[in-house]
């Protein structure tokens, strides 16, 4: 029983990180159709903001989360205005532009903050462990799980039960018809991109006490995020949640019996096979004929 609970908790910990990283990408990709290869750099910038605010200004991680979300969201807003809004009907150019932004961001961070590994201190109030049915887990990892689920729930409620969410769903289905009804699709895209970027920055800040912070850290996370979104279904927030849980639990179990590298390789092979036979993803919403 202890082993089962321990494996479930390990899988949930991995799932919460996947959900945090993939949620922002799912929102941006699902609404705007932009394949944002710079998404990992938003995660990296959030981690660096957490480190900078802690080292230079003495802010605790918990106190800086809201500020980090707003800072990265503002950066996402500026990038959408300056670059992305000109490329919505040019998907290949969007891929190239966001890839270039990611490379440029990495180099700017390397030149300003240095290339050495940085570390963010875990909040003292969450540095202990919690006993659950005989298994022990980090209090901070449980906190990250709670935040990830809270962000998902807030995002889902905005998408399903607000007028802004109704406009997003209309734009997603048919941008031209939505615009003819007076919906400002440009403004909706801008807010969506900023919100997705802000969530990615928040993810980076929350991950930073668990991982070392470096200019290249975003590269790994953007691959994981795309795996989650593609497996779950591009326009399905619930699919993003479900695929995060499936991938997290599967990776945790495979890593226990082998190692992290083999586990990731096996998961990637499984995703390729699934997408071969179900390209719309496992949890894609049904479309009426």
Describe the structure.
The chain has a domain at 24-218. It has 289 residues and is mainly alpha-helical. The chain is globular, with a radius of gyration of 19 Å. The protein has helices at residues 2-32, 39-57, 61-82, 91-113, 139-161, 163-173, 175-180, 185-207, 217-232, 237-257, 260-277, and strands at 129-132, 135-138. A hairpin with a 2-residue loop joins strand 1 (129-132) and strand 2 (135-138). Strands 1-2 form a two-stranded antiparallel ribbon. The termini are far apart. The model has no long low-confidence stretch (mean pLDDT 86). Helix content is 74%, strand content 3%. Helix 5 packs across helix 6 (163-173). It comes from Shinella granuli. Its main location: membrane.
Q: What would the keywords be for this entry?
A:
3% strand, two-stranded antiparallel sheet, 11 helices, 2 strands, 74% helix, mainly alpha, 289 residues
What fraction of the residues are assigned to beta strands by DSSP?
under 5%
How many strand units? 2
Strand order of the largest sheet: 1-2
Distance between the termini: 47 Å
SSE arrangement:
Elements (H helix, E strand, L loop, with lengths): L1 H31 L6 H19 L3 H22 L8 H23 L15 E4 L2 E4 H23 L1 H11 L1 H6 L4 H23 L9 H16 L4 H21 L2 H18 L12
Antiparallel strand pairs: 1-2
Outline:
Keywords: Amino-acid transport, Cell membrane, Membrane, Transmembrane, Transmembrane helix, Transport. GO terms for molecular function: transmembrane transporter activity. Helices cover 74% and strands 3% of the residues.
């Amino acid at each position: 029983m202890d082993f089962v609970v321990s494996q479930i908790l390990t899988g949930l910990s991995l799932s919460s990180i996947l959900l945090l990283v993939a949620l922002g990408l799912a929102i941006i990709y699902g609404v705007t159709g932009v394949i944002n290869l710079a998404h990992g750099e938003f995660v990296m910038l959030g981690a660096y903001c957490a480190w900078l605010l802690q080292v230079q200004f003495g802010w605790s991680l918990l106190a800086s989360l809201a500020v980090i979300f707003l800072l990265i969201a503002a950066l996402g807003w500026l990038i959408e205005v300056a670059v992305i809004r000109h490329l919505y009907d040019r998907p290949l150019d969007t891929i190239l532009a966001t890839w270039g932004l990611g490379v440029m961001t990495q180099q700017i961070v390397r030149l300003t903050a240095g290339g050495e590994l940085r570390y963010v201190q875990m909040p003292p109030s969450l540095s202990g462990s919690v006993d659950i049915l005989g298994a022990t887990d980090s209090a901070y990892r449980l906190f990250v799980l709670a935040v990830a689920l809270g962000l998902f729930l807030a995002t889902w409620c905005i998408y399903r039960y607000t007028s802004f969410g109704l406009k997003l769903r209309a734009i997603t289905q048919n941008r031209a018809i939505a615009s003819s009804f007076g919906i400002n699709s440009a403004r909706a895209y801008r807010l969506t991109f900023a919100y997705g970027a802000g969530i990615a920055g928040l993810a980076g800040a929350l991950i930073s006490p668990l991982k070392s912070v470096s200019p290249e850290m975003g590269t790994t996370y953007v691959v994981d995020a795309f795996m989650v979104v593609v497996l779950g279904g591009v326009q399905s927030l619930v699919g993003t949640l479900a695929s995060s849980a499936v991938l997290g639990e599967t990776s945790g179990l495979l890593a226990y019996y082998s190692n992290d590298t083999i586990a990731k390789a096996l998961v990637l092979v499984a995703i390729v096979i699934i997408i071969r036979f179900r390209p719309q993803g496992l949890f894609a919403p049904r479309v009426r004929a």
